[in-house]
Amino acid sequence: MKSRSAVRTADRSDTADHARSRDGAHAPALAPPASGIAFLDQGMAGVVSAPTGGSPLETGFGPSSSSAGEAGRHAPVLQGVFPDAFNAERREQQGIKKDDVQLDHMVSQDRLRRFLATHTVLAALTADGKSKWAQTKEALAALRKAITKLPRGEHNFMSEGHLVNLPQNIVPGLANQVQGAGGDFDPQVAKKSTTGNYDRYEETALSLAQREIDAAMNTLNGLVHAAALPASSAASKKAEEYDEATDKLLADEVTKLATGFDALSQAAVPTYDAGVWYDHADKKVKKRPGEWIKDASQVAVGGTAPTARANWSHTFEFGTHALGKDKSVVLVPVTVSVDVTVPPKTWKHLYERHYLPTFAGAVEAVDTFWKTDPYVYLTSNAGTALLASELQLMLRNSFNFNKAYANLPDISDKDATETVGWSKAAKKLFFQGNPSATLTTKEPDEIGYSVEVELKSIAPQDPELAYAMLPSQLPAQ
User: Fold this and answer.
1) Pick from 106, 88, 83: which is nearest to 98 by CA?
2) Which of 208, 280, 316, 425 is within CB 3.0–4.6 Å of 430 for a Cys-Cys bond?
3) Could you give the residue ranges of the DSSP H alpha helices within 150-287?
4) pLDDT tens digit string along 371-382?
C-alpha cells in the first residue's frame, strides 16, 4: 500500500532509539494567548493559547482528533508560566532548584484540553431534563461528582486551568530533558525492589490507573462529534433521534473516566524522585521500566555475532465504532486491518542495539535490552500477542478510527491515506516506524481501514522483558 499523503511528523533515524524529546523541535509558531491561560510541560518560555475547535479542522481521518475540531494529537505540548499557585509552589518544594524542576503530565494537557470540547457536546446533549440520553446523563453526573473531589485552586470548575493543573496527574521531574514523552502519555516510574545485581523499576499503580483515563478520554475525543448527534435540546428529547447503543457506549466510556477520577482524588500528590533520573551528556533522562543492571562487570556485553533473520510479518484486526446519522443517530462498526512487517535490517538492528550478547556498541541516552532473543520472543505466540496489543494502542493514539462517517473523505481522495512517524513507546514496547492508514470501506453500515507498518525498531520497556543500563556503563564503539 502506497501512502498518498505527506508524513505528518518528522522521521527519525533507525539507530537514534527513544529519540523523542520535549524540546518541541519542528513545532509551529504559536499565537499569543487570548485568555491568558498558560501551560507548563516542556521547555519553551512564555504564555501560549490553547487551540480552539471548529469544523474547518475536520479533514482526513487522522491523526486522531477532538470532538469539536480534529486538530491532531501530535500538536506541540504547550507551556508557559504556570497560572496555578499550588503547582507553582510545588516547584519550590522538591529539594532541588526551582528552575531545575519540570512538571510532567501523565495524561497530557492536549488530551485534557480536547476533552473539554467533548464534554461540552455531551453536556448539551443531556442538558434538558427530558433528554432521551439518560445513560450518558447519569455517567456525566458521576464524572462531575468525582472531579469535584479534586483540587481546583482559583480555577473555574471543569475549566482548562482546572483540568491541566490537577496535581495528582502531574509528576515533578527535571528540566532539560532529552527523549521524553513530548505530548504523549508520560508514565510515572519508581524503583520497586532490588534483587542481586538488579534494581527493578516499574510503572506505578497511579500511572497505570491514569492510562485508563487516557484511553477512555481518547475514545470519547475521537468519537463524539456534534453534527452526528441531536442538534438541539428539543432534538435530544425525540425518540426518533435517539440510539440506545450509542447512549450506552458513551455512558460506558464516561463511567470509566468517573471511576478513574474518583480514584485519582484519593491518590497522593506525586513528588520528585531523584533515583529515576540520570545524566547523559548535558541532558537529563528518565529511567524506563526494566531491570537496571548495577554492576556492568557481572554481565557479558557484546562479542557474539547476531543471527541473520528473514523478513517476518503478522496481520491482525481490531474493531471500534464511529457515529453516523440519517434520521437518527447510528453507531457504525469499524474494522481496522493491520499488516506489520519486520524486515531483516530491523532484526539486525535489534540484535546490535537491544540485545546484550550481540550488542555492537551504539550507545544512546536510553539503552534497554531484550532479556531473551528478540526474534525468538516476538515471533512466539506470547510475543506476537503483545506486539499486536501494543501496536493497537499506538495506532489508536495516532489515528482517529472513531471519526464520524460524515467527516470521512471519499476512499478515492488523497486524504484517504494518512502517514505518521513513530519514535516513541506504547506501554511495554518502544517503536520506530512510519505507519500508513488507508480508508478502504465507507458505507453507511460499515467502515474499514487498512494499516501497513514496517517497524524500524522494537525495544522493551518493561521489567519482565527488559534489562537496562546507564550509557556510562556500556562500551562505546
Assistant:
1) 88
2) 425
3) 160-164, 205-223, 233-236, 244-265
4) 999 999 999 999
